[in-house]
Amino acid sequence: MSRLIGEELRARGVLERHALADALVEQRRVGGQLGRILLARGAVTRRALYDGLAAVWSLRFVDLVATPPDDELMAIADADEMLWNR
């Protein structure tokens, strides 16, 4: 059974209980995605959120800034094709 993102971030130790509670109150009040609310409040870093989302979705996170794609591959790749035919 997968966790909710708030539970995952708490389990990873990157989100304080009070910050999650406050963000959930705001989410109920105004709507929106919890991750965006947490980022806007400075409660988590983007990297922590991305790592948490990858875990919740059972995906591997790849930081394309830290590990850029191969230049030769990118030279022959069609961006539109990659985006629409994943």
Description:
With 86 residues, the chain is mainly α. The protein has helices at residues 5-11, 17-30, 34-40, 46-56, 71-76, 79-84. It is elongated and about 50 Å long. The relative contact order is 0.14. The model has no long low-confidence stretch (mean pLDDT 90).
Provide a short characterization of the protein structure.
This protein is mainly α.
| Helix-strand topology string | HHHHHH
How much of the sequence lies in strands comes to under 5%
Low-confidence stretches: none
Helix percentage range? 55-70%
- Coarse morphology: elongated
Give me the secondary-structure category: mainly alpha
- First-last Cα distance: 26 Å
User: What do the pLDDT scores average to?
Assistant: 90
DSSP summary, beta strand count:
0
Query: How many helical stretches?
Result: 6
Main sheet?
Answer: none
SSE order and pairing:
Blueprint: H1 5-11, H2 17-30, H3 34-40, H4 46-56, H5 71-76, H6 79-84
Tags for this entry?
86 residues; mainly alpha; 59% helix; elongated
